[in-house]
Structure formats: C-alpha cells, structure tokens
C-alpha cells in the first residue's frame, strides 16, 4: 500500500498501552511497525503505562501528550476479566471467591468477603481509570489538534467491545482483533468501517462483528531499529535479561474449544508468517541481548497440517546459529512428531503449556477440543526421549461440562501418567475454573441451560453475576470449592499439586485406559411432528 495523499503524512500517532502486568506489548509494536512500513513519513511514538508507577499514570500521560502533540491516539487495552488462580488486583480472585461462596467457617467466609470486596473495588477502579485515561488523553490531544481522534483495541476490547460502546467517547474507533488493515485504511483516507470495527456514537456494533474474518496480511520481520527510536521504554524489557520477549509466528486458530474466544478474535483461518521473517525478527532481538522468546501464537502447532511450517521455522533457527536461546509457547501436544521433538529440544524449548482442560477423553470430546489424549501421551514420551527435561504446565479446568466423579478420577490417572513421563517435579498442574466469556460455545450452553439470560452484563462483578461467570456449577461446585479451600490451607505455595493430591485421596484414581477411552454415545433420534 502506498501513501495516497500528502495530507496524511502529517499525522502524529501515539500508541498508549494501558496499565497491565509488565508483559512485552507485542500488539502496539507490530501495529506501529506496520504503519511505518506503509507510511514511512508519519511520526509515531509508543508510550507504555505498564512501565509507569500507578500514582504517575495521569501525569506521565499528560507529559507525553504535551510533548508529542498527537493527532491520533491508539489505546491498547489488554485485560478486563479477572477470574484466575493467581495473585493480582490486591489478592487472589479465585481464592477470595471460593472462601466467600463455599467456606463453612464464618471467619474464613468473612475473610473471603473482605478480599472479594477489595478485588471488586480494585476492578471497578481500574475499569473507570482506564476509561478515564482514554477520555483524558483524547481531550488533551484535542487542545493541540481539534480534529484529534482515538482508536481503542486490544484483547479486552475485542472481547467486550459491545459493552464498551456506552462508555467510550463519541467518535472513538473501536477495533476488534488485529488492527493493521483498519489503521492503514484510516490513514490513507479510505473507508475503514468495513473492517472489524465501529465508531462510538455513529453506529451500533454490527451483529456478530467479532465472528467476521480478519483481512489477510503478509507479515514481515519487525524493524526493531525503528521501534527503539519511537519507544523510550523499550530497554525496560531488555535490561534484566529475564523477560520472555514475544515473537508471533502465525495468527488464527482453527479449533472450536467451547470456552475459548481466541478462535473468534483471531479468526479460524491460520495465517503463517514466513519463517525467514520470523528468524530475522528474532535475530534483531538476539543482537540486543535477548535470549528468551515466547511464541505468542494462539497455538504454536494448531493442527497437523501446520507441522511442516513448525519444522521449517525450527530448522531455520538451528541454521541461524542462535544456539544459546530458550523459548516457550502454548502447544497442542497432539501435533508433536519425533522430528519436531528433536528440533524443539535442539532449539532450546525450556517450557511449554498444554491446555488439555481435562484428562478424560469423554469430556475433551464434549468440550469440542479435538484432542486425542492417547496421542498427546505418546508425543510427550517422544519429547522426553528427545531430551526434554524442563517444566511442563498442564492446564486443567474442572467442572466445565458433564464433570462427574468418574471423569475426575480419569483426569487424575492422566496427570499421574504425565508425571511418570516427565517427572512429578516437572509437571505443574495449573487449576483453572473457566471465566465464561462472551462469543463462546460455553456462553451458548449457559443460555441453553438457563444458567445465564441473554442481555446479561459479562463485565459485571456483582456477586450474583460473578458466581455464574466463574464457571463452577452444582452439583459439583461445592465439592470443588471445599477441595480448593483445603488445598490453599494445606499447601498454598503448591496449590495445583495439592488439589490433585486431595482429589485422589477423596475419589481415587481410575485405570489409565478408562481415561483414554470415550465410547460414542448413541442418541435416540427425535421424531419430527408435522
């Protein structure tokens, strides 16, 4: 794409990454790199509030806008929903919720209530603060340029774009999913509303906007010489040498996992970034001292037809001579071959996550995950045989659909087999309870089962809504609540392993073959009446 008019080269774009944990802001980096390649004369700057102390957010934003005087503010908003078994926002949201909902001891219940209240307040303060930063930034920019506009995107916005319609300033462009082609069209003066976006106050979001497919984009290596020149805080992520720096090798996810929103945010069409470009991008970071990389794909090997692409990339990393690197990723382990196993170990993979959700093949099928758990085990054995001897994080989300004592025992059996393969100290069970998100099959299931009503507010943290969105329905909800409370009491520093231990103490462990077998259900055909 070429610059169409001189007028738009006078644009000054300020990318503001709204406050979040200090994770490398790959979204705004790629977006600004893309704009520079299409419109090299446009002035840009990245401002990362993730590197700013909370008390300085507004003053730092004011100073940046006063200095740069942007005509376009692009806000990146990463996080909104808070259900996770980790600390943050003043406490552990999952523990506080379970203490409040399930504890029998009134003092523990009170502690959970007070902890939940702190998180409740912190959540809404953060929500209002981020909205306030968007409004404040736009208002200040308009002092210098009356025509200044704001665009808001990022993970949080892509999921909750419908709810944010009422809270953002009129004229704000709300971007769903990736924003490169949207921003290119806006800057070239063309019609941009056919992209996955809408303009606040001008139109309501199109029905099923998030389900529209992204515009394909040919991705080239990010120009980090340029990024460094427009981002004063860049070295914050390089100075300690312990950050995993994000590199994207593909976009899109072809699967239908019932609770996951990736497949609609990124689209089902998997778009591979050329291996040479990925390696060239890594080389630039490597030359700056980076040795730890995180492949930020939804899944590093999303399906078997992309195995050859993964092999090509890893082989080119070997050929590049970057022999002292480490990397990590989310991996669908059912797609790992012996050749891939060898290359993973050779290229320095030292951590990976498997989101199998359940160790019961029956439940994996019901959650539409497309895994063959027997294949996953065999591929893990191949990885171990290739020399992998580092940490594996296995994500389990209990009580999603049709969980029963039998399926819990099957999950325990499956986990114990993973421990036998890698070593018990190398397999870390991450215990999640799904935070139900809009636009997923699980939301449709909740409507069907009358657990939620259409029109509910997915951003609400009111107790009567939060208990439904933190997915742990009865009849097993209270049981899991009790188990988790016991695990936090007995061994809070190793919560996941303690949960598995307590479940095995209470329910036992199924034969492994039972976990790996899932008989096809014979459903009776329904007669159609005329």
UniProtKB/TrEMBL annotation:
GO terms for cellular component: cytosol. It holds the Pfam family Radical_SAM. InterPro entries: BchE-like, Elp3/MiaA/NifB-like_rSAM, rSAM, rSAM_horseshoe, rSAM_sf, Slr0320-like. GO terms for molecular function: catalytic activity; iron-sulfur cluster binding; metal ion binding. PROSITE patterns: RADICAL_SAM (PS51918). Residues 237-473 form the Radical SAM core domain. SMART domains: Elp3. Its cofactor is [4Fe-4S] cluster. Keywords: Iron, Iron-sulfur, Metal-binding, S-adenosyl-L-methionine. NCBIfam families: rSAM_slr0320. This is Radical SAM protein.
């Amino acid at each position: 794409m070429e610059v169409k008019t001189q007028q738009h080269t006078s644009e000054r774009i300020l990318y503001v990454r709204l406050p979040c944990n200090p994770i490398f802001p790959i979204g705004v980096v790629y977006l600004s790199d893309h704009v520079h390649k299409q419109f090299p004369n446009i002035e840009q700057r990245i401002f990362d509030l993730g590197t700013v102390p909370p008390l300085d957010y507004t003053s730092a934003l004011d100073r940046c806008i006063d200095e740069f005087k942007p005509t376009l503010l692009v806000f990146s908003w990463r996080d909104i929903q808070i259900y996770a078994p980790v600390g943050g926002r003043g406490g552990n949201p999952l523990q506080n919720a379970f203490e409040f909902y399930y504890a029998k001891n009134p003092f523990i219940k009170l502690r959970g209530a007070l902890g939940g209240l702190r998180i409740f307040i912190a959540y809404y303060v953060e929500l209002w603060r981020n909205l306030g930063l968007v409004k404040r930034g736009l208002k200040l920019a308009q002092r210098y340029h009356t025509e200044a506009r704001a665009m808001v995107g990022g993970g949080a916005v892509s999921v909750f774009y419908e709810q944010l319609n009422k809270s953002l300033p009129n004229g704000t462009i709300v971007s769903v999913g990736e924003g490169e082609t949207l921003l290119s069209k806006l800057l070239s003066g063309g019609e941009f509303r056919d992209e996955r976006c809408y303009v606040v106050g001008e139109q309501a979001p199109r029905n099923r906007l998030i389900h529209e497919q992204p515009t394909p984009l040919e991705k080239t290596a990010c120009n980090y010489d340029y990024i460094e020149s427009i981002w004063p805080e860049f070295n914050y992520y390089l100075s300690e040498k312990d950050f995993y720096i994000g590199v994207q090798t593909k976009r899109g996810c072809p699967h239908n996992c019932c609770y996951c929103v990736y497949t609609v945010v990124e689209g089902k069409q998997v778009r591979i970034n050329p291996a040479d470009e990925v390696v060239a991008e890594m080389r630039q970071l490597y030359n700056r001292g980076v040795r730890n990389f995180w492949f930020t794909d939804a899944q590093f090997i999303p399906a078997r037809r992309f195995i050859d692409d993964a092999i090509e990339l890893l082989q080119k990393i070997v050929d590049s001579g970057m022999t002292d690197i480490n990397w990590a990723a989310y991996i669908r382990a059912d797609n790992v071959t012996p050749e891939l196993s060898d290359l993973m170990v050779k290229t320095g993979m030292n951590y990976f996550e498997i989101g199998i959700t359940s160790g019961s093949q029956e439940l994996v099928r019901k959650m539409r995950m497309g895994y063959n758990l027997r294949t996953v085990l065999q591929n893990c054995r191949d990885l171990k045989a290739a020399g992998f001897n580092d940490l594996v994080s296995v994500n389990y989300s209990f009580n999603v659909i049709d969980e029963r004592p039998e399926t819990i025992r099957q999950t325990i059996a499956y986990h114990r087999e993973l421990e036998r393969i890698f070593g018990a100290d190398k397999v870390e069970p991450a215990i999640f309870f799904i935070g139900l998100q809009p636009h997923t099959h699980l939301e449709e299931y909740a409507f069907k089962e009358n657990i939620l009503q259409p029109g509910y507010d997915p951003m609400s943290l009111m107790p009567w809504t939060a208990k439904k969105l933190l997915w742990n329905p009865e009849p097993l909800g209270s049981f899991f609540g009790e188990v988790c409370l016991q695990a936090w009491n007995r061994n809070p520093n190793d919560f996941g392993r303690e949960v598995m231990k307590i479940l095995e103490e209470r329910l036992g462990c199924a034969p492994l073959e039972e976990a790996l077998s899932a008989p096809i259900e014979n459903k009776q055909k329904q007669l159609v009446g005329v």
